[in-house]
Amino acid sequence: MKRARTRSLGQQQRPSALLQAYFPNCHWTLYDYIVQVIPKRFEVHNLTLHLSDLNERQSVFLTEIIVAEPTDCTQKATGITVQKSSRSGRSIGEIVNRVLEGSVKDKNAQKSLNDCSILTYGYRSININRRASHAANYAAGHLFGVENYFPNTLVNSVKTADWEFLLDLIGDAAVAHILQNTFVFQYLSNNTYCQLSGSPLTELQTTRSITFAKRPRLRSQRRDSIETETMRLTCEREKAGSPEPPAVRTHISLASLKGTEVIFDRSRTLYARPLYEKSSRYCDIAKIWLGLPRDHILNRYQPVSFTENCLYDSEATETSVILDFDANEVQFKGSNLQVSDALPTSPIANVTTHSTIIVPSQSPLDFAAQHIIKYIFPQQFRLQPSIQQAATPTNRSKSFTRATSGLSRTANTFLQDSQGDAHREQEIMHIRSTKIPPRLRIAVSMVASMIKLHHKCQYAALLNHHCPQKANTSRDGMSPTLADCSSYYEVSCYIRSCLKRTVPDAFWGSTANREVIFKSVDLFVRLRRFESISLHTILQGFKTSDCSWLVPPPKPGGKAVLPSPCELAKRKELIEEFVFWVFDSLVIPLIRTCFYVTDSGPHRNRIFYYRQDVWALISEPYMKDLTTNALEKIDPKQVNRSHLGYSYVRLLPKDEGVRPIINLRRRQRPPGVNDYDMGPTSINGILTNALQILGYEKSMQPEKAGASVLGLNEIYSHIKRWKDAHYRASERLYFAKVDIAACFDSIDQDKLCNIIQDILREDEYLVQKYGVIHPSAGKIKKSYVKSALNGDEFPQFTTVAASVAQTLRNAVLVDQVLYRYEDKGTILELLSQHINENIIKTSCSNFLDSFFYGDMEKRKLAPISERPDSVLLRYIDDFLFISKDKTVVESFVRAMYKGFPEYNCTINPKKTLVNFDMTIGDQAIPCTKETDFPWCGLLINASTLGVRGDYARYDTAFVSDGLTIDRVRNPGDAFKHKLMQMLKAKFHPIYIDTTLSTKRTVCTNIYENYHLCAMRFHVYLKEFKSAQPFSDRFLFEAIMSLLSFGYVLLRSRTSSFSGRASGCQCEIGSHELSW
Question: Which residues contact residue 753 at a Cβ distance below 8 angstroms, ignoring those fewer than 6 apart?
Fold first, then answer.
């Protein structure tokens, strides 16, 4: 008994850290809950419980079930009336049914399904007219007023004999309370749990970090808290004096945010399409627009002369303007300003043709400045704060949709009811009479100067000066390379030069402040693909005391006093709003309109800037060739009829030329919808169930995939199994690798469809979806997984979870009770369309590729590949053949060189390699005399079959190109986490198994892994050397934690599911690893 209890309690200690993040100090084992909590809530007769008095099954049940309560539930528990809980003679099934009836009633009252217990998923209330027929069922102990319209196997999990034992122990009321008001988790294995009741954990928010200890608050953090509180009081006081307009959203103070929560993502600048304009009204030649976009807020007010398109009402008391929508422009009387491209061609927003808009009786320049200042400082006018939107994760993923970006999505959306400016304009319409706050009156004149400076700025000339076109950039005979792009220094100089000529110096307050912002601009330009920068990082070193325009005008007769904390917080808020607008509405739009920003194939995360006109010249011939040879133009109606829709193509630059990339993960845009209101799913999302079914069939029929290996786990198991069965140390091995030329382009679509039709054996399949929660880098990571099963099967979710838990650690599995039946005919039709009728035919999944070439191996290579003295591996289209017999390897190479016309299979001779001398006719096959044979990033020893990592690609690549620096929040913790993640990939069992490789090879793998990690360590520190250096003590602790973490990885990899299945062993001790 004691042994069972000790094992269970020990196993639940680590996942309690995960549950602690959701339920701080409010989760117990079922045994502890019965002993500590139940007596405070219920009066149970003769409740005496000792594990020593129970059998092993009962003690394991009480110690492997975790009961958790929400924090508010625990707080409400004080002072409640103790209820009686006794055994009434009802079975556990009847108790569960009564709980379901009450929970479904509560479920109907809930606003969101996510607030309901997962036990109620698949249950709903019955119509009143049908309840009479269910009275007999109620009398028999069945559900009354509730029906089960879809199976929920979790209900069966709480109707077992173990729960019947619990019912006998604590009574009806206590069991009903546990099922209805608490969260219940069942232990599986590897510190992994399955949720049985309560709201789905995937929809709850955590309350704290789960990995890193909370550090004591520093003085600067306490000061920020003071500023936050004083600013909140200021905002409440100001709000009390000026009521909010009815159409304006609720004011959210910036004080509720931290600077680290306001993020500028690199992704907002990537892959922007050029903006075109007509060079002349009578010319058809299109030019690329350079500078801020045409519909930018600063471009709406343009210096022009008076024309007849604007009519004036002389009877108005103030200067009024009658807008002519047909002219599609607005001009102000007696002024040199115009609002262009600002009005739609149809009356909307309660503005009709020839409507009168009253313009205040000041100069049009001042009116324009007062209008634009509402975009820059929206919080000061009780508008929705744009910084709040930027800090929201959902809006952060929808790049370039900020409410104050000053950019319209189309040409005529000045007052359109859509995202961005349209909402801001509607908000401004309700506050038109609001006066400018006194502290912003100086800023209005500065904004007016900004308008003038903007129209004087020669953006195109500055671009030609700082980012000149390269010498080899010409329309004819152009050979595009990565050298055609502009350098980071050139792009940074251009952006800073534009800001210097556009933003008045008075906004910065001092040259030092301006240099702080310019330094951040340079950092933003140099960010890698997945990096971001926060507003907090941008403002490091910025002194608000230098900005005189932040100081409010003095009161008459008032004395000069030191600014209070509340005043300092208000100044900080204004600076944050202005700097946010500069980056959001000036820096990012300038980059998008002037440069095509992209990554590249050989340089991974490194970013390249091409001038938009240069990129147009580069991409034009390739797009023509792509649309002529690889793509076929179709009728737009065919796209609407297609189940899969269409995908997007972009060109990825290489050292020489470009490569077309098709993004099947991008959500589709329905007709008439802009880029920011995308469709519900992508092509990959539509094909998810089909691919899960293919994966199920691959696991059930592995012979159909032939020698296909998808990932290191399968490569390791195949090599290890063949070595243990057929290899002796004294035998010589012969290697050959071949690569199929144009693999995806050469696949015979009709033949592939026939192969898939034979592979799908079941008439119906069941696709199940469940959630997985596990810790990662001190945060909670949530993901959703789908798995396919035979349509005749409907397994208990706890059974599925127990199987999945073998491959997980420290996780919680949550059943979504989402099951979908897929008909074989429907799946075949969808896959056929994906293969034959997809607009982009060059994208086949790994499963389709595996089955296609698996059929080819079975029919054409079986006499060679099925020999016991040989082993064939294939990763996508890369074949590796190992044999003890040299003649067998030669036969394989000759067969592959000959090709298989029936499958359109030909190899690329340049990528063929053997480890012995061989010729075919007069052609010598490329040969390597090295002991280690390279294949798919691995070096396989030809004498021992030991495996090492292939680091040859780092000979011509920069280590920094593969990094992603986290500068946003907790950079020290992120630094440690990045280092640990760097070690994980090369600590796979294939590298550390001393039964597969020699001990010397394993030690070499560990050394090379730490060597690469040290190089990345150096690059990472170099990035932070000037901005945020780490202390020597911190670095020493990071290095020591890496050593201890490496040893933990060695032990965990050998004890993992794949390691145990393959008999992985590692004889490296901790002292050897540290040495």
Answer: 828, 831, 832, 835, 836
With H, G, I as helix, E, B as strand and everything else as coil, classify residue 953: helix
* Token pair in block for residue 305: 């002369």
Question: Which has the closest alpha carbon to 820: 865, 764, 894?
Answer: 764
Encode pLDDT of 62-97 as tens digits. 999 999 887 655 544 444 456 677 777 788 888 998
Do residues 812 and 201 make contact, with C-beta atoms less than 8 angstroms apart?
yes
How many Å is the Cα radius of gyration of the chain?
A: 34
The domains of the chain, with CATH numbers, are 17-73+88-127+143-197 (no CATH), 297-301+365-389+412-553+566-616 (1.10.132.70), 706-747+843-938 (3.30.70.2630), 946-1074 (no CATH)
Phi-psi region of 349 (alpha: psi -120 to 50; beta: other; left: phi over 0): left
Token duo for residue 407: 């950019």
In whole angstroms, what is the distance from residue 708 CA to residue 860 CA?
15
Query: Which helix H or strand E contains 340, and what residues bound it?
Result: strand 337-340
**Which residues, listed in sequence order, are joined to residue 880 by a DSSP beta bridge?**
737, 873
Query: What span, in angstroms and rounded, lies between the C-alpha atoms of 594 and 485?
Result: 12
Q: How far apart are CA 685 and CA 607, in angstroms?
A: 28
Q: How far apart are CA 463 and CA 446, in angstroms?
A: 25
Q: Is the pLDDT confidence value at 595 over 90?
A: yes
Locate all alpha helices (DSSP H) within 899-988, ordered by sequence.
Answer: 971-984
Strand partners, 736: 881, 914
Question: Half-sphere exposure of residue 963, counting CA atoms within 13 Å on the CB side?
Answer: 25
**124-133, 902-911, 1029-1038 — which one is most confidently predicted on average?**
902-911
- Residue 506, SS3 per DSSP: helix
Vertex 332: Cα angle to 327 and 336 (nearest 5): 105
> Among 205, 191, 99, 81, which Cα is nearest to 144's?
99
How large is the average pLDDT for residues 124-132? 64
What's the mean pLDDT in 799-824? 89
Phi-psi region of 961 (alpha: psi -120 to 50; beta: other; left: phi over 0): alpha
Contact partners, residue 535, CB within 8 Å, separation at least 6: 259, 260, 262, 263, 264, 387, 576, 579, 580
Which residue in this structure is represented by tokens 């000979």? 955
The single residue listed with the structure tokens 């009161």 is 555
- DSSP assigned state of 38: H
Write the CB contacts of 805 (distance below 8 Å, at least 6 apart in sequence).
Answer: 188, 189, 190, 192, 194, 811, 813
Residue with tokens 């997985």, as numbered in its chain: 772
Spatial contact of 148 and 123, defined as CB atoms under 8 Å apart: yes
Cα 959 to its chain centre, rounded Å, is 24
CA 942 to chain centre: 41
- Positive or negative, the CA dihedral 958, 959, 964, 968 is negative
Kindly write down the DSSP assignment for every residue of 723-777, as one continuous string.
HHHH--TTS--EEEEEEBTTHHHH--HHHHHHHHHHH---SEEEEEEEEEEEEET
Which residues make Cβ contacts (< 8 Å) with residue 997, sequence separation at least 6?
941, 944, 945, 946, 947, 948, 991, 1005
- How many Å apart are CA 606 and CA 615, to the nearest integer? 17
Distance CA 54, CA 52 (A): 6
pLDDT confidence band for 425 (50 / 70 / 90): confident
Which candidate, 745, 804, 738, 635, places its Cα nearest to that of 189?
Answer: 804
Say if pTM beats, i.e. exceeds, 0.90: no
Rounded CA-CA distance 653/357 in Å is 51
CA–CA distances in Å: residue 681 to residues 76, 647, 687: 43, 12, 10
N residues, the chain: 1075
Tell me how far apart the alpha carbons of residues 930 and 947 are, in angstroms, rounded to a whole number: 14
Q: What number is the average pLDDT over the span 992-1015?
A: 91
First vs last C-alpha separation in the chain: 43
Alpha helices, DSSP H only, in 550-687? 565-582, 588-594, 612-625, 636-641, 683-686
Contact 61, 187 (CB under 8 A): no
